[in-house]
Amino acid sequence: MREIIKGQYYRHFKKKYYKIICIAKHTESNEKLVIYQALYGNNTISARPFDMFVSKVDRNKYPDVEQEYRFEKVEYKEVQDNIYK
């Protein structure tokens, strides 16, 4: 299983960047959630089920996407080069 760590940066397959705030647990279902912040627009903080966050891109729905995974870890340098131009 892929490891997601607080403070890391990720690129969504649609080319937007995000920072991991934390990994949380749903209080009712105990489902593991990734809490992350958009690094664009209003810097919205969102939650997504962990399994969905680490899943592979649906090739039937998005056949032309280059990334293997929905979110892929990137170094901060890539974030700087692409959002702080």
TrEMBL record:
Residue ranges annotated for the DUF1653 domain, each copy included: 9-72
Q: Which InterPro entries match?
A: DUF1653-like_dom (IPR023387), DUF1653-like_dom_sf (IPR037135)
UniProt organism field: Peptostreptococcus equinus
Name the record gives this protein: DUF1653 domain-containing protein
